Amino acid sequence: MEKSELLYEGKGKKMWSVKGNDELLIAEFKDDLTAFNAEKKGNEEGKGALNNQISTAIFKLLKENGIETALVESISPTEQLVKKCSIIPLEVVVRNIATGSLSKRLGIKEATVLPFTLVEFYYKDDALGDPLINDEHAILLDIVQSEQDLATLRHLGRQINSVLQPFFASKGLKLVDFKVEFGIDKDGNILLADEISPDSCRFWDVDTGEKMDKDRFRQDLGSVKVAYEEVLRRILS
Ligand code: TMP
Ligand code: ASP
């Protein structure tokens, strides 16, 4: 599979067309780190390769558990072959423990275990700062066609959580919250797309409470790469 044309460069990945194949794309994971809608920028050599390996392992686990994904296979240290799909412009955030923007927005005490798994939708629009939206906003903006589509996305978010939460618990990590994105393939199937990595999740060490994700970069805690390496080591152990 040979890269052809650069179709899109996002904050964490570059998307390439594939020579002679219009059903697949190549996703190249970058070493760049951004936070707060790219107001804060950094770079960590090797981060892209770590996220590729972490996300590949997680998507494989989800596939084994019946979640359809866009991943075909990892083809190099920093690249994945993926099915082409049309990305639904929603960040689906799934939360088990209050922190981050949830605590800030609603005043819920940091680290409160939520009484149920919370699923939120954010509209993927950098110019607007990815605002939190409700179901009617999503329909009004034509992001989805019906309440049923939103129910499906919520259900998928919860299903992914029900696979990943016990998996990470068995690796000594609390899955605090995570963000997922979905795409629609040419046959109309909803596929898990993008990535699941320490860039898009919060992981706290079960014993020490130490943050093992991009909050280390957001909050200038240092040892970003060391934490990502440790997450990969535990996933593969
Ligand atoms: P938040 O508490 O900042 O809303 O973040 C919730 C989760 O979503 C957290 O695991 C980090 C992830 N996330 C992203 O992957 N991309 C983003 O742009 C934001 C804001 C959060
Ligand atoms: N990914 C977002 C950005 O680059 C925000 C974040 O993850 O904190 O700005």
UniProtKB/TrEMBL annotation:
A GO biological process held by the record: 'de novo' IMP biosynthetic process
Enzyme Commission (EC) number: 6.3.2.6
Signal peptide residues on this chain, from the entry's feature table: none
Domain of life: Bacteria
Gene3D superfamilies assigned to the protein according to its UniProt record, in alphabetical order: ATP-grasp fold, B domain (3.30.470.20), Phosphorylase Kinase, domain 1 (3.30.200.20)
Pathway: Purine metabolism; IMP biosynthesis via de novo pathway; 5-amino-1-(5-phospho-D-ribosyl)imidazole-4-carboxamide from 5-amino-1-(5-phospho-D-ribosyl)imidazole-4-carboxylate: step 1/2
Enzyme class: ligase
InterPro entries associated with the record: SAICAR_synt/ADE2_N, SAICAR_synt_PurC, SAICAR_synth, SAICAR_synthetase, SAICAR_synthetase_CS
Keyword tags: ATP-binding, Ligase, Nucleotide-binding, Purine biosynthesis
Reaction equation(s) it catalyzes: 5-amino-1-(5-phospho-D-ribosyl)imidazole-4-carboxylate + L-aspartate + ATP = (2S)-2-[5-amino-1-(5-phospho-beta-D-ribosyl)imidazole-4-carboxamido]succinate + ADP + phosphate + 2 H(+)
GO terms, molecular function: ATP binding; phosphoribosylaminoimidazolesuccinocarboxamide synthase activity
Transmembrane segments annotated in the record for this chain: none
Entry's family note: Belongs to the SAICAR synthetase family.
Protein name: Phosphoribosylaminoimidazole-succinocarboxamide synthase
Gene that this sequence comes from: purC
